[in-house]
What does this fold into?
Amino acid sequence: MTNTTQRTRPAAIAVALAGLLTAVATTRAVTPETVVTEAARNADAGAGVQEEIDTISDDIDTMAAEYRAALQTTRALEVYNAQLESLLASQRREIASLTRQVDEVTVVGRRVLPLMIRMIDGLERFVALDVPFLLEERRSRGAGLRAMMDRADVTIAEKYRRILEAYQIENEYGRTIEAYRGKLVRDGTSRTVDFLRIGRVVLLYQTLDGRESGAWDQQAGAWTEVSGYRIPIQQGIRMARKQVPPDLIRVPMPVPEAVR
It folds into this structure.
């Protein structure tokens, strides 16, 4: 046994010595240049990794900013869409209201048109029965109203307004004094004379030379000559033309039938 043990120890020592030599050889192979080169290689690798990390971080920041912008846009669009919905609802209500109004106007139009025709008829009859002043103008006004009723480009409201305007003009005649020059047809002859209208009560004429004066007799439906009124009629004509201040004048007045 002793001999075996003695033979084993030199072998173990040889193996240990070989390992030590290998370790020493390995240690001697790692030089400072090798360490610097390896460090540089590791630094380059670390820089590449950091660059990738920075790139990824920038991408994340960009995507986060885009997300926030998209989120703000979405919220703004939601508010805008809500406003549009409110506006569209208001417009739908307005359309419904206008539709009802159109229907009502159509119904009212069917009722008002016959009334307007009767108003024009009444106006023309009134002019025909009234004192015959400015006949051509007044008859032309009535004919214009009647022609207007057949025009589709004139609204019902405008037609009614113009008819009322004609009635107002006729009403004003009863409260004003007016002088105008026109044709007097009497006994088959036509002459140019000055007319003097005082309301609807008195209608007088006087020739341009002032030699003849006359008055309209509504009961007889004819002109009659009057005497003694040349100066008052001239004064009334000048007053109506605003050539002299208003003043009292003496003119022939028609006498009511019941008083005669």
Notes: The longest strand covers residues 177-186. The chain has two domains: 48-173, 177-240.
